[in-house]
Amino acid sequence: MHLFYHSPILDKSFLLEKEENHHLIKVLRKSAGDEILFTDGEGYLYECRIEELTMKKTIISVLDKKLQIKNPFHIHLAIAPTKNADRMEWMVEKAVEIGVDRITLIKTAHSERNYLKSERLEKKAISALKQSLKYYKTIIDQENNFESLVSAPNIANTEKFIAYVDENLPHHLIEMANKKSNYLILIGPEGDFSAEEITLALSNGFKPCSLGPSRLRTETAGIVAVHSLNLINI
């Protein structure tokens, strides 16, 4: 099963983007009359047909659309960008494949990087969405201040966790989180959160949690957190 992405899909027919044209013709060797599947990233699966297919223009018609059931839980990963942009792009790709609803890049006291190219992250997220056959596109927020995020009033009905390096943290995230809930998990930079940031998070209702006995790189910790929260909801 191949899944394609196009957004928004507002009419009964639409023009396909050039990059997807190439994939249809050169890789999948599709032709006019073939039926293919699309998602708009908003939860809909579209059954479509290729009406016209050339390297310059491809016309797709919509035959049917169905809303796909959304997971009964919501995962929000807030993570400090790594100095190496490639590592963060890899993390976004893998987290989306596993299943994450929102990724917020946070600016912390020890952040190594304050900016990542949003277009590249979006492309990675869309590619992973298609690969893993998902119908809801992950929201990616650029550069949210740590203090603003942890004290935001709109996260009151969320299970909130902060993972940091401390051998005395007794409980793993997978032991603490409840099924079918909204989660927000904070992952710090390579230099970890500052003591002041940890204190601020705890005072705002975040629970300290472990991600295992190993000292993990930032991007690895993000993957472990997302996988753990998906695992308890199987």
TrEMBL record:
Residues 16-62 form the Ribosomal RNA small subunit methyltransferase E PUA-like domain. One of its GO terms (biological process) is rRNA base methylation. GO terms for molecular function: rRNA (uridine-N3-)-methyltransferase activity. It catalyses: uridine(1498) in 16S rRNA + S-adenosyl-L-methionine = N(3)-methyluridine(1498) in 16S rRNA + S-adenosyl-L-homocysteine + H(+). It is found in: Cytoplasm. The keyword Transferase applies. Its EC number is 2.1.1.193. Specifically methylates the N3 position of the uracil ring of uridine 1498 (m3U1498) in 16S rRNA. Acts on the fully assembled 30S ribosomal subunit. Belongs to the RNA methyltransferase RsmE family. This is Ribosomal RNA small subunit methyltransferase E. It comes from Anditalea andensis.
